[in-house]
Design a protein that fits this description.
With about 350 residues, the protein is an alpha/beta fold. Helices cover about 45% and strands about 15% of the residues. It has 13 helices and 5 strands. The mean pLDDT is about 90.
Length: about 350
């Protein structure tokens, strides 16, 4: 049985303009753009569906379908046909009620809505409430804290430190310095049960403490390398020793700009005297309650997640060796830390947040 001939496609100027627009616009859905290109190819060529399919890298069925749909229904035939399935049962008004009730009210004798309590309150199913919450990224059960800096020199310090990140001085190193105190060495009271398909690794609920150590670290922002020391205490004496280590580990011809917080150990008399003898070292203090601006905190988070959180150490010495090994591995293949936001962008975000939390525009 011979195949029927392909339907001839003739385009009006208006249809051609619409199809060309769909095929060229970046914001057009790609499925619709492809259908437009198929119809244009069918109209501009005497080639068969098979030849057009081969030239466009499509199946014969695809080319035949959209040629036929356009011939029968015109431009409207290129839209998706209505899909089968159950009709929508949740109205826009009900979705709006779920959102406004979640955001603007609280239930009696509770601090927040749950899917069950809100479903009972609005006469909907728990599954419906859960779907609407997921669609609009609502999570009433979650809460987060925030803290705003009250440093009177907040603006100046932000501009100073961000300026170091984005435009470091010539022939200078920018190092982010801080301590991670009281890292605990502990081990399980029984051997861990290893991970298996369908079951995560399991540890005992209790553990044995073996002491703590304090980590001093200086992150080279541009290179991603870290200078680190571990001490059993974190007094000014230990911090001075760490500064000496940093000073010896860096090229003498470079100025050192250290970003660090306002801990008393960083400002004590013995530190001030040490700085007077080492004039190439310059301290830049972060605003109070603004540790997020010190990039070494990001490195501490990575260290904790990858090595410390699930690590088990039978002694403080084992913990310290693990930290040293992690630092050595980090420095073999370092990843630079790139600061992207300008000081103006940060200050604008802080100002907007202050307005939101204070409820005042003054």
């Amino acid at each position: 049985m011979a195949r029927p001939h392909a339907v001839a496609i003739e385009l009006s100027e208006a249809d051609r303009a619409v199809l060309l627009g769909w095929s060229r616009r970046r914001k057009t859905a790609q499925a619709l753009a492809l259908r437009a290109r198929i119809v244009l190819a069918c109209a501009d060529s005497a080639a068969t569906n098979t030849a057009i399919a081969e030239a466009m890298g499509l199946s014969l069925m695809t080319v035949s379908k959209w040629r036929r749909r356009f011939a029968q229904h015109g431009i409207a035939g290129l839209d998706d046909a209505p899909r089968s399935g159950a009709p929508r049962t949740i109205l826009d008004e009900q979705v709006e009620a779920v959102i406004t009730t979640t955001l603007e009210t609280v239930p009696e004798n509770a601090t927040h809505w749950s899917t069950r309590t809100l479903a009972a309150h609005l006469g909907l199913s728990q599954t419906t409430i859960s779907r609407i919450w997921r669609a609009f990224a609502l999570a009433p059960h979650r809460t987060e804290g925030f803290k705003l800096s009250t440093d009177p020199y907040f603006v100046d310090k932000v501009r100073d430190i961000v300026g170091l990140y984005l435009h470091p001085p010539e022939r200078a190193l920018v190092l982010c310095v801080d301590e991670k105190p009281s890292i605990q060495a502990h081990s399980d009271t029984a051997p861990a049960i290893p991970m298996q398909p369908g079951q995560p690794e399991r540890h005992t609920h209790d553990y044995l403490r073996h002491g703590t150590t304090d980590l001093f670290a200086a992150l080279d922002v541009k290179a991603g390398t870290v200078i680190a020391e571990v001490h059993r205490r974190h007094r000014s004496v230990e911090f001075r020793h760490f500064l000496q280590t940093v000073e010896r580990a860096t090229p003498a011809e470079f100025e050192l700009h250290l970003v660090l917080d306002n801990a008393s150990t960083h400002k004590s008399p013995i530190i001030q005297r040490w700085l007077l003898r080492h004039t190439r070292v310059h301290l830049h203090f972060t605003p109070t309650s603004a540790s997020w601006i010190n990039l070494v905190e990001c490195w501490f988070s990575i260290l904790t997640a990858r090595r410390l959180k699930r690590g088990r150490f039978p002694s403080t010495r084992a913990l310290e060796n693990a930290i040293r090994a992690y630092v050595a591995t980090n420095n073999v293949n370092p990843k630079p830390f790139v600061w992207t936001k300008t000081a103006d962008q940060i200050l604008q975000s802080v100002a907007e947040f202050c307005i939101r939390t204070s409820g005042s525009h003054h």
